[in-house]
Write a structure and sequence with these properties.
This protein is α+β, with helices and mostly antiparallel strands. The chain has three domains: 2-49; 62-135 and 209-363, Sandwich (Jelly Rolls); 144-152 and 163-206, no CATH class. 36% of the residues lie in helices and 24% in strands. It is built from 13 helices and 17 strands. The strands form three sheets. Strands 1, 2, 3, 4, 8, 9, 10, 12, 15 and 17 form a ten-stranded antiparallel β-sheet that branches. A hairpin with a 5-residue loop joins β2 and β3 (112-114). It is globular and about 60 Å long. The two termini are 21 Å apart. Residues 254-366 form the Fe2OG dioxygenase domain. It comes from Nematocida ausubeli (strain ATCC PRA-371 / ERTm2) (Nematode killer fungus). InterPro entries: Alkb, AlkB-like, AlkB-like_sf, Oxoglu/Fe-dep_dioxygenase_dom.
């Protein structure tokens, strides 16, 4: 939140100075881009030189590193969750999206693990929405500031197996992102930097997308929600969240925003806390589709030695609510298994989910009386 306020104050100052000096709109945009660039470089310098000095060797960090570099399975899964949970409930629902009876496992701190509660056709609908629509414009994604995707029907190109030409935006941030892209080959990087255009296989380009935003847009650079940028959450996701919050969480919940993470085999997200929403009493509802993963759950303090690991598989839902809403959590490993592989085999998007993982984390952004 402080980053957001600082950015907006800085932007107002830049606008005021530019207005007084007669600098045109393109000049203001250039100054703002330079400000963002300096901010990114400052963060990178901090990460490289100072973060390692301050990083303590905690149990949470040890567990993450262990799973990053091994094929070991997590401790808790759908078969043994009843042993580790504080209580188990078989919940009858009237939802048209959830199964008639859903098994929910409740853990200390309020964390809820629900193995595969969606009806099979609903699971397929949501996966299809993501892979055919929600990763691409007009939805904001992780590569749209570097690459011009506005006139590109990426999914149609994927179906037709036709090569696409992609233009890189001519700004410093775009060039930094391309240079740092771990999935880009040396020839791709050189082509981007020298000509600004590269020809790519559409499936490869789709798999470069790390995340997309639906609902109210969350700006990762300033770490704040932007109510001026809103992309509608599909009805099937919206209603599934309302049914889950009503029948399982027993709270009123407005699905206002969601981040879709699209993981490939070597991707991971280290432990963090999602604390940018105004009302932390509302749940964070997390859907999993495709490849299985190791989900690590710590406590409120990174130094706490209590760490649990869960196997999240295709169709599973994890809910952070209550005290667990502020627990450190992460995904250090994408596994070589996909429990729903047979369910997707006849889908035209099969190769986009057979070895990839989709995670949709839905939140309520604002607090209401």
């Amino acid at each position: 939140m402080k980053d957001a306020l600082l950015f907006h104050k800085t932007k107002k100052t830049i606008d005021a100075v530019c207005a007084c000096t007669g600098i045109l709109a393109w000049g203001r945009a250039l100054v703002c881009n330079l400000y963002r660039l300096v901010k990114i470089m400052a963060r990178q310098i901090t990460d490289v030189f100072f973060l390692p000095l301050n990083m303590k060797k905690t149990k949470l960090r040890e567990v993450e590193k262990y799973h990053m570099h091994s094929e070991a399975m997590p401790t808790i899964n759908s078969e043994n969750a009843h042993i580790y949970c504080t209580r188990q409930e078989n919940i009858a629902t009237e939802s048209k999206l959830l199964k008639e009876t859903v098994v929910a496992y409740y853990f200390k701190g309020g964390f809820i693990f629900i193995p595969n509660p969606l009806r099979q056709e609903v699971k397929g609908r949501i996966a299809k929405e993501v892979l055919t629509k929600l990763l691409y414009p007009p939805y904001r994604n992780s590569i749209d500031r570097a690459l011009d995707l506005s006139d590109l029907d990426l999914y149609s190109a994927y179906l037709q197996k036709s090569e696409v030409s992609v233009k890189m935006y001519d700004n410093p941030i775009a060039k930094i992102k391309i240079k740092q892209d771990p999935y880009a080959t040396p020839s791709e990087k050189e082509s981007f930097i020298s000509t600004g255009i590269v020809k790519m296989n559409p499936e490869e380009l789709i798999k470069k997308i790390r995340w997309s935003s639906i609902g109210i847009y969350y700006d990762w650079e300033i770490k704040a929600y932007n109510r001026e940028i809103v992309a509608q959450i599909p009805e099937v996701i919206d209603q599934a969240c309302k049914d889950i919050s009503r029948d399982i969480c027993k709270v009123n919940f407005i699905p206002e925003t969601a981040v879709i993470n699209y993981y490939q085999k070597k991707d991971r997200i280290m432990s963090h806390v999602d604390r940018y929403e105004e009302d932390m009493s509302k749940p964070l509802i997390s859907f999993s589709f495709g490849a299985s993963c190791v989900f690590v759950l710590g406590k409120k303090e990174r130094e706490d030695s209590s760490v649990d690991t869960f196997l999240l598989e295709d169709g599973d839902i994890a809910i952070l609510i209550g005290e667990s809403r502020e627990y450190f959590h992460g995904v250090p490993k994408i596994l070589n298994s996909n429990k729903g592989l047979e369910d997707y085999k006849k889908e035209e998007f099969f190769s986009l989910i057979s070895e990839s993982r989709i995670n949709i984390s839905v939140r309520q952004a604002y607090k209401y009386d």
